[in-house]
Structures are given as structure tokens and as C-alpha cells.
Amino acid sequence: QVQLVESGGGLVQVGGSLRLSCAASENIFGSYVAWFRQAPGKQRELVASISTGGSTNYANSVKGRFTISRDNAKNTYLQMNSLKPDDTAVYYCNVIIRVTAYWGQGTQVTVSS
């Protein structure tokens, strides 16, 4: 099955930027892709998504600061700017192929005050 690997997380100061990458093991052209995040003690939440047609949606908390994009059939990115401590979480890439959802292992993003 499709395997997803997230990368690009790390420690950043308030106001800084990070670019997360999601690399798929096979062609996911035409698939729905989303980024989720889960902070300690909180439920997983949808951060951003991009449809097969390229339409994007963002959580209100990140709108104007984060950008989701797809460079090719295997890679998806999440550009995160003006980071806040509340953005601290494990970020997961999610790909839906037909009716099956695939998840990466997650990458930690920590924003220090």
C-alpha cells in the first residue's frame, strides 16, 4: 500500500517558518491530500487540504499563515509562516485514494516562546 513520510519538522522560535514535506511511495496524482496536527492532550485537527483539482482549504487558526501545495505526483508541502506556540504539534500527512485513507508517521513541530 501507499506509504507516506513526513519531514521538515523541528524547533523554531515564535514568528519563524518551517516547510513540511510529505513524500509518497507511489504516484498519488489525482488524490486528496491533507495535513492534520495533534497537540498533546488534544484531538487531531485538520490544518489544510488540497483537492484533486487543486482547491485548498485551511483551518481558521492557520489561514493566511500556512500554504499547502503539490509539486508533483508524489510530494505535498505545507509552508508554515509566522509560527505561534499554539502551532506546536505532531503534523501528519493524509492521503485519500478512492475510499482508503493513508497516514504518515508524523513530524514534530515545536514553536518556542
What order do the helices and strands follow?
EEEEEEEEEEE
Number of β-strand runs:
11
Low-confidence stretches: none
Kindly report the average pLDDT value: 95
Computed structural class: mainly beta
Helix share bin: under 10%
| Main β-sheet description | 7 strands, mixed
The number of distinct helices, counting runs of at least 4 residues, comes to 0
Return Rg in Å.
Answer: 13 Å
Instruction: State the separation between the terminal residues, measured CA to CA.
Output: 40 Å
Shape: globular
Description:
- With 113 residues, the protein is mostly beta strands.
- The protein contains no helices and eleven strands.
- Strand 7 (66-70) and strand 8 (75-80) form a beta hairpin.
- 28% of the residues are buried.
- The model has no long low-confidence stretch (mean pLDDT 95).
Quick recap of the structure?
The protein has 113 residues and is mainly β. 0% of the residues lie in helices and 54% in strands. It starts with a strand and ends with a strand.
What brief labels describe this structure?
0% helix; seven-stranded mixed sheet; mainly beta
Topology overview:
Elements: E1 4-7, E2 10-13, E3 18-24, E4 32-38, E5 45-50, E6 56-58, E7 66-70, E8 75-80, E9 89-97, E10 100-103, E11 107-112
